[in-house]
Automatic annotation (TrEMBL):
InterPro entries: DCTN3 (IPR009991)
Superkingdom classification of source: Eukaryota
Protein name, entry field: Dynactin subunit 3
A GO CC term assigned to this protein in UniProt: perinuclear region of cytoplasm
Coiled-coil blocks: none
One biological process term in Gene Ontology: microtubule-based process
Length: 187
């Protein structure tokens, strides 16, 4: 029964320890008090655990779990240092180019901070308004173009009809003049 209590105490200690690590920073005095109490509990548990072999194995597994929960451990497992070194060496030729580009960006920073660039949002609103006006004017121009095209077509039709009418009148007058000249000769 005392072994089960020791396991229970150790589990509680581990939970408290994890909660303490994951919470927002507390005042230093509270952290020290909590740490002191955890050390006392750890010492008591180690004394109890020294007597039981199964508890030692359980403690070892809990320490492994804590180690595996460490974010740095996961990073080390995901990408080993040798692999990181290979990445860096593979990109060795591109690093000077990127450094030059970063230097260029740094040199151009005053331009990005200039009042002209800072005023772009204001200019964008004005440009939007001008774009709307331009679109409206294009629509009006299209309507006017259609209207002028219709008027020109009507003018051309009217001119054609008048030309045909004048040609007909000219033919009639020519026939009348020829007929008039032919009658006096016959008299």
């Amino acid at each position: 029964l005392s072994g089960q209590k020791a396991i229970l105490l150790h589990c509680r200690k581990s939970v408290l320890y994890l909660r303490w690590i994951m919470t927002a920073p507390s005042p230093p005095s509270v952290c020290l008090q909590v740490a002191d109490e955890l050390v006392k509990v750890q010492v008591a548990l180690n004394n109890i655990a020294g007597k039981r072999e199964r508890i030692k194995i359980l403690f070892k597994k809990i320490e492994d779990v804590i180690k595996y929960l460490d974010p740095q451990y996961i990073d080390r497992m995901a990408v080993p240092d040798a692999m990181k070194l290979q990445f860096i060496l593979a990109e060795e030729q591109a690093i000077p180019v990127r450094a030059a580009l970063l230097e260029q960006v740094k040199n151009l920073q005053p331009i990005l901070d200039s009042t002209s660039i800072q005023a772009v949002p204001d200019h964008a609103a004005k440009l939007q308004r001008l774009s709307q006006i331009h679109i409206q004017q294009q629509e009006k121009r299209h309507d006017l173009t259609d209207s002028v095209k219709t008027l020109l077509e009507d003018y051309n039709k009217m001119t054609l009809l008048l030309s045909k009418q004048f040609v007909q009148w000219n033919e009639i007058l020519t026939r009348l003049e020829v007929a008039k000249q032919a009658k006096p000769v016959a008299e």
